[in-house]
Write a structure and sequence with these properties.
- By secondary structure, the chain is an all-beta fold.
- The strands form 3 sheets. A 4-stranded antiparallel beta sheet has the order 3-4-5-6, with no helix packed on it. It has a 3-stranded antiparallel beta sheet with strand order 7-8-9, with no helix packed on it.
- It is flat and about 50 Å long.
Length: 121
């Protein structure tokens, strides 16, 4: 028995109809959705920056993505060497802002890694 295993269909996909997860922005003044977009399965939580970006990783497609906080528009994405395994973090070093994410291991690097990306000025 595998604890916390996902229920899958015969082709190995989640047994619920796609999209399997969404990223949502809620207007806190009205309680209404400002926008919602499909993002795949298994994502840990997103992080929003003061500069208007929302970063999200963790889907099985290994994508790490940046969205516009106001519109939900995809601005940037990269394929990681494994699944993002934690909520991203952001930090500033020597005046430059970075976003970092923990990446699960793979055959080449079983222990996993932390990857950091510089944000544009």
């Amino acid at each position: 028995i595998t604890a916390y295993a996902q229920l899958k269909d015969p082709e190995g996909r989640p047994a619920i109809k796609a999209p399997w997860g969404t990223l949502n922005a809620i207007n806190l003044n009205t309680g209404e959705y400002a926008w919602t977009i499909p993002v795949g399965t298994g994502s840990p939580g997103p992080i929003a920056t003061g500069g208007g970006l929302v970063f999200l990783g963790g889907a099985r497609d290994h994508k790490f993505q940046a969205f516009d906080k106001a519109s939900g528009k995809l601005l940037w994405e990269i394929i990681l060497p494994g699944t993002a395994s934690a909520t991203p973090c952001t930090y500033r070093y020597k005046g430059k802002q970075y976003v970092a994410v923990s990446v699960a291991g793979n055959k080449e690097n079983p222990a996993g890694t932390v990857m950091a990306f510089a944000l544009p000025e």
